[in-house]
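pasting for ref
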Amino acid sequence: MDQAQSLREYMQRFQVQQENSNHPSRVITITSGKGGVGKSNFTLNFALGLKSAGKKVVVLDLDLTTANINILMGVTPKYNLTHVLNERKNIWDVLETGTGGIEYIAGGIDIQDLLEIDQYALKFFWSQIQELQSYADFILLDTGAGISKELVDFILASDETILVTTPEPTAIADSYSVLKTVIHYNKMPPNFRLVINRAQSYKEAIETSRSLKNACSKFLKIHLNTLGFIMEDVHVRQSVRMQTPFLMSYPKCEASKNITEIVRTYLPEVELNTSSSSKGIRGFFEKIISMGKSF
């Protein structure tokens, strides 16, 4: 990359930062009760859908055990957030661009990493995170599946959480367990949105959504919002093999139409109800550290 190109990219980022300086990034945790429900694939295509709608999106892969975002795009990240912490790489060094122009950062970091670094390193980390906050409209956190303290922390620190499940009874039960565990740690219910993935029909999707929502209302005393449904679609599996988001490779398939509808539903709602209390990605990590110290 020549110096002129580097300067152009810097100026473009500076302009975006100036335009978004008064609008902190909305941090969305995307999770599931168990693996194999299509969480990472949803994250990637949802990000692409938001990007197609004119939004600036960064995906942060926080699934430390089976990071899949880069695999789904057929790319290998050179750096991750640990390089910001330990080697003083700046946020633009670790921000990668994948298929379809999706920008993402490989995580490689856990709460303990943040708790153990010295104040100088933490200050540098905050300065870099702050630049990212003024760069993106949405930061999507692709987390590990299942229930863990780290997942609960991520959910409680985020502006909202999208819970992805399938109609399988085990997936529904595990999703309910995630909700139950989060409520145990936080009496005020976080903002959850439900996505039913790989449904055989809209009837099945609606019944799955109704079943989980009723259980949450009856036993957890919370209202669970349904964001949308994604039908079982052979094109999704083909896209995974191609390592290309299905929204790009098969834009007219049923699953792509479902993602587009989810984005159309989501954006007007979130733009109407955006709270000024959102602290963005820096606020997310500050909450993570405070919770890590309190446990």
